[in-house]
Amino acid sequence: MTNTTPKDAVPRHVAIVMDGNGRWAKARYLPRLMGHHRGVEAARKVIRGCNSAGVECLTLFAFSSENWRRPEEEVSGLMSLFMSALERESAALFRHNVNMRFIGDRSGFSVSLQEKIQQVEAMTASCTGMRLLIAANYGGRWDILQAVRTVASQIAAGELDAVALDEATFSGLLSTSGVPEPDLFIRTGGEKRISNFLMWQMAYAELYFTDVLWPEFDEQCLRDAFADFACRQRRFGMTGEQVSGGKHA
After folding, report:
1. Which of the four, 10, 45, 111, 187, has the lowest number of CB atoms within 10 Å?
2. Which residues have a catalytic role annotated?
3. d(CA 226, CA 219)
4. Closest residue by Cα to residue 131 from 166, 180, 165, 88
5. 184 - beta bridge partners?
6. Which residue, 137, 108, 107, 121, is CA-closest to 197?
7. 111-124 vs 72-95: helix crossing angle, rounded to 10
């Protein structure tokens, strides 16, 4: 993806719900897992596209805490695909200076998968380019709850004054600590909901929904999303005139 978008129109942080793998496969009379395999290819294109466009952080919702409810065969296949994708992609990420980090409750994964996650994180820890967050066994409510538990523990230990607790302190306890809040949220597949993803962090994100199924989401689709984002006026509670430099309305 060649970056022809003005730098100030490129979102710093893009968060994506990669929806539609199963429906893509079903429409072609293929097993659902084939859709997930094609979804990995789409993710590779989007990672490359965001990196070349100058995006600082990309967060991909790979596996939600609710996805365990899917058929056992599909979940098992997803775990195997997750492992193989990590083994295949880690070297390329390192070559392209992409720093990969995982957010979510890792305790639900096998020991071998947890070890592979740690290996990839360690391998790319020194990379100084785009930060890639993979949300796996992640839920927005879980993220907020684990931060609340930390706050409660710190208050009980006398390490934190409840009156002094502010949004910045709380944000620093979330799994996305250290990265800017998402500017652009993309959801493929035609659904129009957040689905328990980065609920605190996306308070001011621009929402972009597309009917394109994730396996077919390519660099041009990403450019279309960025073009739409560039047309938005991000006011953060101010008036349009204030943002554009005019008189206060």
Report:
1. 111
2. 19, 67
3. 11
4. 180
5. 14, 206
6. 137
7. 20
Q: In terms of Cα–Cα distance, which of 78, 66, 74, 53 is closest to 2? A: 53
3 state SS of 10: coil
Residues facing 13 on adjacent strands? 57
Per-residue pLDDT of the chain (249 residues), as tens digits, is 445 555 567 999 999 999 999 999 999 999 999 999 999 999 999 999 999 999 999 999 999 989 998 889 899 999 999 999 998 999 999 999 999 999 999 999 999 999 999 999 999 999 999 999 999 999 999 999 999 999 999 999 999 999 999 999 999 999 999 999 999 999 999 999 999 999 999 999 999 999 999 999 999 999 999 999 999 876 656 665 656 665 443
* pTM, 2 dp: 0.90
Nearest of 78, 86, 93 to residue 116 by alpha carbon: 86
| Pair of tokens at residue 220 | 């041009």
Sheet containing strand 206-209, edge to edge, reads 99-103, 131-138, 57-64, 13-17, 184-187, 206-209
Name, in order, each residue with C-beta under 8 angstroms of 6's C-beta and a sequence gap of 6 or more: 230
Structure tokens at 215: 């396996």
How far is Cα 141 from Cα 159, in angstroms, rounded to an integer? Answer: 24
CA angle 70, 196, 160 (to 5 degrees): 130
